Hints:
Elements: H1 5-20, E1 29-37, E2 42-44, H2 47-61, E3 62-76, E4 84-96, E5 109-121, E6 124-132, H3 134-140, H4 172-189, H5 195-203, E7 208-215, E8 223-224, H6 226-240, E9 241-246, E10 251-255, E11 258-262, E12 267-271, E13 285-287, E14 289-296, E15 299-307, H7 309-314, H8 320-325
Parallel strand pairs: 1-6, 7-15
Antiparallel strand pairs: 1-2, 3-4, 4-5, 5-6, 7-8, 9-12, 10-11, 11-14, 12-13, 14-15
Amino acid sequence: MVGFKNQKDLVRAYYSQLDKDPIKAAKYCAPDAxxxxxxxxxxxxxxxxxxxxxxxxxxxxxxxxxxxxDLFMAGENKLETGGLWVASMGHLMGLFDNPWLGIPAxxxxxxxxxxxxLRIDDGKITDTAMFFDIPHLMMQSxxxxxxxxxxxxxVQPGPMTHDGLMxxxxxxxxGVKTLKTIEFMIDDIRDWKGRDEEGLMVxxxxxxxxxxxxxxxxxxxxxxxxxxxxxxxxxPFRDGLSDKIFNGHVARIAEGSFGGFFGWPxxxxxxxxxxxxxxxxxxxxxxxxxxxxxxxxxxxxENWIFIDLLHFWYNQGVDILSRTTGIGRV
Length: 330
């Protein structure tokens, strides 16, 4: 069996160096490694520049910052883009002592939820997608970047089973099962049937256990059980967005009972009115998403979602970050 232990150890060493000195962490990356970050950072193709623009300012703001991982896995990407990828998810926690991106400091604990995919080639990180829920951090500072959301706003826990940190390799057969379960769900919703054409309560149980939890991003929120998920997210999402174009994924992996994917972008959608309290625009916009999943039995049961909502609405002509903080675009 070909395992992923060496690649996992590389990423853990990279994380350890980021804690000590983000500039020196560039040694774990190829010189032209691509880093795809949440708006307003977007694409940066220089590890030193990533450290200077993202890590150093963030660590200055969230003092004594620590990485609190809930999920750590690796897998071979079977999509056309290929590659071996390591993925992690959790929170970056620190004392919010200094403003960041115009978000006011609180001098209290703040938790920036994140998910990250890292591609490893020849012992170096060559490609990264890292999404972090900036609107959630804004809300912890007392700001309201979006209208009232349909789901619950929470600091989100990791998997109920507490077994998401796979520093050693998991049973590969379990990863195959998980990937097949995720791909069944993707194929089942690809046609984007409206909630009344077939009925979400008919569609969703094919892929999800009834006690599913959808841990959505700030601005949408979390929902528990199929019925409440249909009511509080899936229904409003399909009602409020039209002309769906599925752009595919860059990477899709699974290990053990966990799996995930990201796209750049995953979807192109047009606001039809009502989604996140926003009006119809008639203008398509790209949606970048990282999804992480836990499988229980032969269905999915937990889903953590990271959507770059700042990017989506910025391309609709609404600069949420600047509008909410009162500071011009970074």
